[in-house]
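Input record, target 12 of the design panel.
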């Protein structure tokens, strides 16, 4: 399979991983391995509570999703 991001740039590169967020295949230059804290939102009667779980998950993301997540974190 070809790297989706490289393909957009007109290059052909073999992929090494799949982004867990969007599912595209990416080469090693376009993947980011991140420890992402896992948060769960519990809805109660009148409101909701966000709980960060004690374990974070190592995840493979493409550079596009990584940028989207990092931008979100900085808000
Ligand atoms: Zn690539
Ligand atoms: Zn992605």
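The sequence produced for target 12 reads:
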């Amino acid at each position: 399979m070809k790297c989706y991001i490289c393909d957009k740039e007109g290059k052909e590169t073999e992929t090494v991983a799949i982004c867990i967020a969007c599912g595209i295949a990416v080469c090693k230059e376009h993947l980011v391995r991140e420890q992402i804290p896992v948060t769960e939102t519990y809805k109660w009667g009148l409101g909701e509570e966000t709980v960060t779980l004690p374990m974070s998950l190592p995840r493979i993301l493409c550079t596009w999703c990584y940028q989207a997540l990092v931008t979100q974190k900085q808000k």
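The chain has one domain: 4-73.
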